[in-house]
Amino acid sequence: MLKVAALYQFTPLPNFRELREPLRALCAGRSIKGSILLAAEGINGTVAGMPSAIDTLVSELRTGPLFSGRLNNLELKFSHASTMPFARLKVRLKKEIVTLGDPATDPTRAVGIYVGPRDWNELIATPGTLLIDVRNAFEVAMGSFEGAVDPQLSRFGKFKDFAARELDPHKHHRIAMFCTGGIRCEKASSYLLSRGFGEVYHLKGGILKYLEDIPESESRWRGECFVFDDRIALSHGLKESRSPDQMMDGMPRDD
User: Fold this and answer.
1) Which residues participate in catalysis according to the annotation?
2) Which of 3, 23, 38, 57 fits a disulfide with 16 by CB distance 3.0 to 4.6 angstroms?
3) Is the pLDDT at 228 greater than 50, yes or no?
4) Going from the N-terminus, what domains does the chain have, and what CATH number goes with each?
């Protein structure tokens, strides 16, 4: 059984270009595959390998000399795969680790209020809470939380257009957002705060952490959670719910 790690952290990495090759070598030397993005604002990725290899990588990221302790708040979700869910290893340099296209948005300075999975059900059941799924429309179609608004995004960068068109800080006083692993709603929350929205929450660890922690009998999640690898989708308990031959024709393979 292989171990899969979904990870990210918003943190200043002014030397991110210099980190690419040492990080690639660190992963390749342990037969780790997957995709890692590096940018001046931080790191984002999903990788898979033998459990010992993934554990070593995580330890190096958090406390090793390569990142000099800058990833000590790394957001991590672990799951498993019966076969390698990635074809190769990619370590890429990007302008953003998740593309919103708004230079003024900076999650290292301001983000919404984190809500853990155990408190999420109570929050989204509170009257006056607007619940928003900030994932792409094809992901929402596979599963979402009961009562969530689907912005019908073709890509995350379109969230700005949705917010300008549909959201009003004078009308929407409490907003709760969620996404697969937490990174998109963290950036979206930062964006909304910069636009004058006062009470903005997001699910810490994303859907994956919720499905891991909350029993199906207590869950308000319906359907499956799409993941960007050959497992296609995960269900409660982070169990693989689809096989590669069930993949939809033309389904995007990257965020």
Assistant:
1) 179
2) 38
3) yes
4) 2-93 (3.30.70.100), 113-240 (3.40.250.10)
